[in-house]
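Input chain follows. Return structure tokens only.
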Amino acid sequence: MGHKPRQRSKVDIYHVMTRGDNRQLIFEDDIDRKSFLEILDRYLKIRLGTLLAWCLMDNHYHLLVRVPFDSLPLMMHDINLMYSKHFNNRHGNTGQLYEGRYRSVPVQDERQLLAEVFYIHRNAVEKGFKNPDDYAWCSHREYVRRPRRTFTELVLGIAGSVDVFEKSYAIYASEHPYKDECLELHSASDEKAFGILRELLGIDPLVELVRLSKSERNRLLCRALGHGFSVPQLSRLTGMGRTIVASLSRRVHEQQDDLTFSRRSTTLMPKPCT
């Protein structure tokens, strides 16, 4: 099945995200993060792009860029290719680093632009920082302190001031609290996780799953993956091959990302507080 065509932004601004294959780490340490940002700076310049917001996580990254529509896939290809070479060479890895192609959300108006910036910065909460200003690998501190690689004038001009920007982010964060629904599941013993899985599926997954038709088996595995079970965990608990589970995991994550991005792109932010 072919990829859906990418939607175009009226103002050439896009929120793009790339994640590690099977959610593997793509940044092992700060050396990797610095190398990625150097590559990003290089190809933004080549493709006449501007960086409006960014956040580097452990297994994925978010960028908000202003770049001509036709240049976006070329820029993302170059960035991901060159960083993959860096990562694989430095860490002795082989094979693909990323999970499928990058995701992209076109920004169509000023209110959505603010929402995308705040969404990107809120990822720092996942890293355990109550204030994204405290996370070094996120552009929020460039908005409230001093810009380095991020062009902050456009967004701050919409907000009106740094103070209004911070207050508006606080409103966004309070209305969109970060919830790690998978934290308890990922830290649970296999015995406890097996009990959760059995209750979720309504069958003994280790005994009855193999007796089902392929379509029904895959439906239940996708349900478990959507609930937050990891690929290795689900493979252990069900006896299913890791390749089978990983293939279904990619399908589930693509569907979830498409739905999340679709919902967020149609949700307008309240006007900046004054």
